[in-house]
Write a structure and sequence with these properties.
The protein is α/β, with parallel strands linked by helices and about 450 residues long. It is about 35% helix and about 25% strand.
Length: about 450
């Protein structure tokens, strides 16, 4: 029986899940690959914690360099995370002629272009299915299943922590802080949740997907990012009354000579499939010229769902090894010579619909002043709603707009915020609604 030797760097939650699949599904994998996938070494500085996975004697070691330098190791799995030592280990593995599998979206978003060039020069594969969407095969779909399509848009819920928090605020009326605390208690959020709730984790994933879909270099720095920490139960209540739910969305759209790339809380209609994706689940909707609209749905994180995606990469590379090939599927879907530096459209240039909420003085002429400021910046109001009294004579005034340009909206809101009738910073939430084009 042929054998593929594998070295695992990092024996945390996902690393333990990978080892668990190798052990428990050994025969299933052998029968599907035609070779024994041999987990030769697992390297981690923590040699004592019980991960609930029983490894053979001598497999668990503390020396990652021993794994990287072993000439018998065919594939390295990087499960360390971060952009420091993980990058060094991946580059060394590549330099030693080893194929690499990683789930490290932050590293790929920041350094994926350079890592890809290094892998191509050495003739090895760099696989990363688990970096986006957990068990959802979004990378494979874009690189293989949808290669005959021009992708016009991708809109997705790509962070389970944010989706869990927004679901709790929506379904139970929780404040953001309470929903976050519950997410942390249930293991859905880190002790420091900044990367998640600030939208940065979602942006890492969108940067990778844009490269795959549009033939561009990975570009994280130009993505517009806005988190969910300022979303209130009041705005979620208003959204529901208008037929919308609020989700943190990753939005990538082909704009011809540029790509629209943004991450922010967004109102989407009840009949949009994504509006019904709740708790810590992920989903993404993709539009292609041949397939039309399609969607993927599943757990975007967690021990076993993520490990499943890692193992799928191991199997792909193992099959390549058995066939004596590498680089069969281009790293970023496009041939390297066809990858371009496509600019990301500045957020000020986008046009969309908006939800606006103002806390205003309860007195005559307030609506006309707000509407006048919007009108002076070419923003047309679709509907206006005024609800019950707030504290100190302030009332919430809610408006939905027709299609408007972001730059115009910012100017109008700046003017409105300076009015003496406005009691606090205006709230703005963008709307994605295919039914309304005006």
């Amino acid at each position: 029986m042929k054998k593929v030797n594998i070295g695992l760097l990092g024996f945390g939650t996902v690393g333990a899940g990978v080892a668990k699949i190798f052990i428990e599904n050994r025969e299933v994998l052998r029968s599907r690959v035609g070779a024994h996938l041999n987990l030769k070494y697992v390297a981690d500085i923590d040699m004592k914690t019980d991960r609930g996975v029983r490894l053979d004697e001598g497999v668990l070691i503390s020396d990652a360099e021993k794994v990287l330098d072993d000439p018998d190791i065919d594939i390295i799995i990087e499960m360390i995370g971060g952009e420091g030592i993980a990058k060094e280990f991946i580059l060394k593995a590549i330099d030693n002629g080893k194929h690499v599998v990683t789930a490290n979206k932050a590293l790929l978003a920041a350094h994926g272009n350079a890592l890809g060039r290094a892998a191509m020069e050495k003739g090895v594969d760099l696989a990363y299915e688990a970096s986006v969407g957990g068990c959802m095969p979004i990378i494979k779909s874009l690189r293989e299943s949808l290669v005959g399509n021009r992708i016009s848009s991708m809109i997705g819920i790509l962070n389970g922590t944010c989706n869990y928090i927004l679901s709790k605020i929506t379904d139970e009326g929780m404040a953001f802080e309470s929903a976050l605390s519950q997410a942390q208690e249930n293991g859905f959020a880190e002790a420091d949740p900044t990367l998640d709730v600030g939208g940065f984790d979602t942006a890492h994933k969108l940067a990778i997907l844009n490269a795959l879909a549009y033939g561009m270099e990975i570009n994280l720095k130009d993505i517009y990012i806005e988190g969910i920490s300022e979303i209130t139960p009041l705005d979620i209540q208003f959204a529901g009354e208008f037929g919308y739910r609020i989700k943190l969305l990753a939005i990538g759209k082909d704009r011809g000579d540029s790509v629209e790339a943004r991450v922010h809380p967004t109102m989407i209609p009840f009949d949009n499939l994504l509006s019904n994706v709740n708790a810590n689940l992920n989903a993404i909707s993709i539009s292609g010229d041949a397939v039309g609209d399609m969607a993927l749905y599943g757990f975007g994180a967690g021990m076993m769902p993520t490990a499943s995606a890692v193992v799928s990469d191991i199997v792909d590379i193992s099959r390549n090894l058995l066939s004596g090939v590498s680089g069969r599927v281009p790293l970023l879907s496009y041939q390297s010579e066809d990858i371009r530096k496509i600019p990301v459209m500045p957020v000020d240039e986008i046009s969309t619909h908006y939800y606006l909420r103002f806390s205003a003085m309860d007195q005559p002429g307030v609506l006309s002043k707000i509407a006048g400021a919007l009108g002076r910046h070419d923003i047309s109001i679709k509907s206006v709603h005024q609800k019950g009294r707030e504290l100190e004579g302030l009332v919430p005034i809610v408006m939905l707009t027709h299609l408007a340009k972001e730059a115009d909206m910012k100017k109008a809101l700046s003017e409105i915020a300076a009015l003496d009738i406005i009691g606090s910073k205006p709230v703005i939430i963008r709307i994605e609604d295919k039914n309304g084009q005006d």
